[in-house]
Structures are given as structure tokens and as C-alpha cells.
Amino acid sequence: MIGRDAHEYQDFLTLHKAQLVHAEIPEHYYRTVFEKIELEKYDSGNYMMMLTDGEDWEVQSTTTIDASDANTIFLVDHCWTFHAEQVKKALRSIPGLAQRLSSLTGVGYPDGDGYESEEETGLEELIEKLSEKIWDMAETYTIQKDDEKVTVCYMMDELGSRIQHSEAPNMRMAPFFHITKQFAVTLMWPVEDEIAPETSITRDITLGETHAGKRAARLAIFRDHLDVDHDNLRMDEVEKLNPYNMYGRKEQTLPEDAPSDSEHPAALRVKAASPSDPIKVFTDLKFMAEALSDPLFKAINTDENADFISTSTNFDKFKEFFEQHPTKIINQFPNENVICCKDLLLKVARRCTIEEKDRDRCDELIIERLNSQSKTWAEDLHPWWCPVGFDLVNELPVFVRNFLEREEAGLDNSWIIKPWNMSRGRGTYVTSNLAMIVKLAYTCPKVEQKYIENPVLFYRGDVGRVKFDIRYVVLLKSVKPLKLYKYNVFWLRFANKPFALDEFDEYEKHFTVMNYAEEAELKQIGDLEFVEMFDQQYPNHSWTDVDKKFCKMIKECFESASSLPPPRGIAHSAQSRAIYALDMMLKWNDDKTEMVPQLLEVNFNPDNQRACQYHPNFYNHCLKTLLCEDIDGIPVTEIS
Which of 7, 10, 324, 444 is 20 to 30 Å from the Cα of 167, by its Cα? Predict the structure, then answer.
């Protein structure tokens, strides 16, 4: 193997050196990694062995392991690679997997007789236990697939999984993905100069996490075996990190001396429009262009001569837009990501709990509250319309603290974990498993929110009482002053299975987005029919009153979002208009006497194809509301 073509090794380094450097693997191991992968050489058994006393396992060296020896980096196989939402399905369908994981995790069959009792009921109970226990040992990595990042979960083989934790480990481990072979292994190498024979092999199960709070959060997974450092489950005073501009978010340019709205060239242009001189609209959405039937609008194929531009691409050059195209209007407001990104929406929501005179200091005050010793500190952080939630990039330690406090108090601990910027339920999971949450927190930026355990349900005659959510379309015409409208038609989405606080991997029980799910029924009920059915099912809670609560919630949200300048708030722009979709649910208050709206997310440039299908004038109505002064007869309600 030493003579293998040098070009192949250089090709390997070209593709993989960044991974090796990121994992802090010493350079003298690089060639060995290449050669062992090419030969599929798993030779750790020549250096170490597994031992057990009948209950606990350890891995012990059998010979000297010299860190200067280029051969002492080892491949550790992954005995199972999986996606988080398919755990139980895999355990049921892959022959022998449940039995192997039973041995590896120490989780036996319910009757305690090992593998002798494999009746269906016993196996199902085993699968239920395994689906919880595996997260203690599972790890994750992320790969790019097409235009999105995909989280991959894995478990190391028996040797890798049985290496014990130490605060002073003698080995280090890191996942490694071979790009051309499209497979992953874990690399293990010594961090001590020399490991003597008959030494227990140890690793840091936090994967080298150095942030004290996040390290404590990862170790809390093993709270049954390790002491939890509660003092570190807190926020730093004021983090130097600027979360408003993290992870590729760009600072947006704003015009410095724009004229007043009434004198702005863009306002004057649309004010002068008429059927003989229509507003020219460019959009990259074919169905939107086809839906513009009002003579006041004319869809065109280029943005060069457009008066109104509706683009699906994020826009950030508002200063240049004013300088180069002062008569044009675009379908985005500067810094609207404070409501469209889920982590920033949490900040906007929390801001509602702070008096207006203290808003400038809101980030500092929020950190103080995150470190509060009050028993209701988490609930006090959030307004009535926002579920308790945490940004897992910056607030993982305090989330874990809240989880442990709820666990100790015997409260429900089911949570929903969501990526910051994905839609359609992608990358979203419901779980009460702390280990699963902490492990997934490291895959891509996510928020964690308390799962609504007491939702208002809707009775479907074909199924029973199911979860549902409501989508309102909201039109933002101006920020200062705030001019906000809701479209009077709204849309419903329904789960397909009766709700219960269990089986969190049952998508059709806990999720309502069925139009992108394969083989799932898409239940459709129009808003007028729904209101009639809702009022029949809940005669003491009229939809008219519920709608007023939704409007109050939406107003509070947008007032908070526009109360501070960028990057903490939406900026005013006379050249901006926007259409948002707000996804919302209803929950019961503690004594089930009142329905309480809950805001789930705000979507920029939502998929309105279904709206156009059932309401052909949808975009005519929306653009008239956003661009014209006379909106009589248009089915919208001002809520600002």
C-alpha cells in the first residue's frame, strides 16, 4: 500500500484535508487514514480489547500505543446509520438490528430472558425502549444534498460505543465522511504521547466541547451516571456573538436620504397607475403571473421595466435599489428576517414582555431573565402567544436547565425541535428525549420550543379528534407608521390521526403539513365551512372571538418586530411591501376555559399556489391592498 499512486493520495487530500484539519487530526496520520480506508483496515483489535464484569464494559489497551507512530490512528465502524425520524421503522425492518442494539445498549427484552422471547409484543416493547436509549450513544454529522443540508445519525460498533468517558481522555474520536466512496467512519487517535498496556481507553463524550455551558449540557444526557454541573447551565453575561447576523445573514444596506413616503418616486408611480398605464409586475412565480387578471396590473417577463418586483430570492441591497431604481417597489422589507427566522422570532416575541422604555436594553435584560432563579423564569420570558422556546445555538445550556427543572417537577417534557430557516416541516422532530435534542442541536442551527401538549382539537368524522393549524396571510404595507392587513380568507391543515401525547415519530398524528408527505391524505376544508363546524363543536368559543385574539397577537408581533432599528428590527422602506403567511395553533389555558392563540412561524414569500387555485383573485386582492389607496371591496381587514 505504501507504493499506491501518489496522485490518488493527493486527490484524497484535495477532497478531505479540510475535514482532517477541522477535526484537529495530527498531520502525520493523514496518509494512514487514506491507506486504511482504501484497504478497509479495521485494526484496533491489534492494540485494544473489550472487557466486562458482567454489567459494565470497558476498552483496554493490549500493547503500547505510541502517538508518534503513524499507524496508531484507527477506523471505528458505524454499525448503524439512520435518519432520526425513521428509528422505529428501521428497528422493525432490518433483520437482527434490534437484537444487536439490545446487546450493545444493555436494553433487554421486557421479560429479561434475552433473545428467547421474540413474540411481536415483546419485540415492540424492546423497540420502544431502544428508540429512547440509542440516543445516549448516537452521534451525528451533516452532509450537503442538492440544495439543503441533511442530518445523518449513526452508532459506532461495539468497541467504539463501549469506550468510556473521562475528563482527561487518552483518545480522541471524530466522524469522517469519505466523499468519493460516500461512506462514513469514526477516526480514533491517541492524545497522550504514549498509552501503556492494560490502560483503560477513554474519550471525551462531549466531542471536545470547550464552552462550559454547552459541555455541561452534553454531560447532562448522562445524568443517571454523571454529576450535572448546574452552575454552568446558564448564559454568559452578554455574548460577543451577534446572533442577528450569524450563519450567512448579511447586513442590509439602507438609503440615507430617501424622500418622504408621499413624495417618494415609487409612491408617485403606483399612484398614477391606471388600466391604461398599469403597474408592471415581474415575478419569478409562474402561477402568480398567471393569476394577475386585474387590468390595473400587467405581468411582464423581466424586472428591468417592472414597477413591482416579487422575487423568491432574499434581497439586501436597499440603498443601491433606491439609488438605481427609485420608482420600483420590491416584495421585501429590510431586515424582515427578524420575524422569518425562527431564532430571531423568539427574540421579537420575548421583547413583548419588556416595557417599551427598556427596549434598547432588551437583549441584556433577556439574558438576566434566562439566568433568573424564579420557578417560572422560562414562562415569564415569553408572551401569551409564544410557546416557551430556546435558540439552541446560543441557549442550549439554559434549555437543558429548563428541561431538568421540568423533569424534577414532574411536568410534561415534550418538545419540538426546528431548524432556523427551513419550512414544510423539514428537519423538525417532536421528542421528550434530552439526548436526542442535544445531539441534534449540533447538526445545524435550531430552535427548541415546548410542544403544545393541550391543543384545541378538531373533530373529523372519518378519523376523530385531530390537531390542526391555521394559516393567515398578512400584508405589510408600511412599517412607520405600521400598516398591516390580514386577508379574510384563511387556510387549514389537519393531522390524519387522532391526537395523543405519545408516538412522537408518527408524522400523521403530530404534524399537519400533508401536501409534501408521500402517500398522506390531504384533508381540505374551506374556511367558511370550517368556521361553521368549529362553532358547532365549540359553542362556547365563537370563531369571531378567536379571530380577534389572532389579530391581537399579530399586531403585537409586528409592533415588537418594528420597535427597534436594524439589525434588531424591521426597517421602514417606501420601496417595500410584503406578503407573509403566519402559521398558528390554538391551545387551552390551564383550566380549559379559554382558547389561546400560539404563533408557530412566519413565512416569507409563502407557497400561495393553493390560494390561487381556490381564490383566483388572491393576488389581485393582495397587490391592490399593498399598492393602492382605495381598497374598498377587497376582503382584507386592517389590524395595525
Answer: 444
